Amino acid sequence: MGSVEGVIRKLKSKAKPGALEGMKRFGMAPDNRLGVSVPDMREIAKDLGRDHDLAIALWKTGVEEARIVAGLVADPGQITDELMEAWVKDFDSWDVCDQVCMNLFDRSPLAWKKVRDWAKREEEFVKRASFALMASLAVHDKASPDSKFVALLPIIRHASTDERNFVKKAVNWALRQIGKRNAMLNKAALAEARRIAGMDSKAARWIASDAIRELESEAVLNRLVARGK
Predict the structure, then answer these.
(1) pLDDT score at 26
(2) Phi and psi torsions of 184, nearest 5°
(3) Contact between 113 and 139 (Cβ < 8 Å)
(4) Predicted confidence band of residue 229 (pLDDT cuts 50, 70, 90)
(5) Is a pLDDT exceeding 80 seen at residue 58?
(6) For the packed helices 38-48 and 64-73, what is the interaxial angle rounded to 10 degrees?
């Protein structure tokens, strides 16, 4: 079992303060950040293993990298509605938002509910979390039927006029990941992208054109054929 102090020491030993300026340029919140790479955080988390109590304590430090490690070591089976709501309100940087959604929240039975709940919220990173979670489910949830993902497309369309950079990029990400899941969803996502392209919004046109470019690409189509999907 690890300790908060021990994890922070390990993170500081891997920190590259010189990388902070570059992270800032990429839109990562500079406050409470050490400058640790994702591979190094993953290595630290792997050594720790699952430790839900430690995850809770790491989150409370407010250190961005400690929060990413928290998302890696927390137990998805112990994730409550209250915890998800508390953590999502603390998101202040896109990388923490995305990493927690990809590594933890999408493994919770509450994930599908939160996708819909958070899409209705106006806080920038709460709304981003909805679509980051949507994208993560498209990759990791192998059991859900196509119909559940098709039902998310109107939510994507509704959010596509949000001009905020961190929201529109997540909306685009969700649309692309759904469209890369299989051939049927590829067609459905492309049809939705074309509807979005006709909307009177700069953000919507960008979301649509970027998604269409990838979903119609030879690389994606060949991959779907090769996978028989």
Answers:
(1) 74
(2) -65, -45
(3) no
(4) low
(5) yes
(6) 50
pLDDT at 1 over 80: no
Domains of the chain: 1-74 (no CATH), 91-229 (1.25.10.10)
| E-state strands within the chain | none
| DSSP class per residue in 19-83 | GHHHHHHTT---TT-----HHHHHHHHHHH---HHHHHHHHHT--HHHHHHHHHHS-GGG--HHH
| Burial class (CB within 10 angstroms; exposed 0-12, middle 13-18, buried 19+) of 202 | exposed
pTM over 0.85: yes
| Amino acid residing at 186 | N
What's at 147, amino acid-wise? S
Question: Could you read off the pLDDT of 97-120 as tens digits, one per residue?
Answer: 999 999 999 999 999 999 999 999
Residue with tokens 């112990």: 78
Average pLDDT over residues 187-202: 98
Q: What is the CA radius of gyration of the chain?
A: 18
Helix, coil or strand: residue 120? coil
Q: Provide the sign of the torsion angle of the four alpha carbons 87, 89, 94, 97, taken in this order.
A: positive
Block residue for tokens 């896109």: 94
Residue 54 neighbours by CB under 8 Å, 6+ apart: 1, 2, 3, 4, 7, 48, 70, 73
Q: Count of CB atoms within 10 A of residue 158's CB?
A: 13
- Separation of alpha carbons 103 and 94, rounded Å: 14
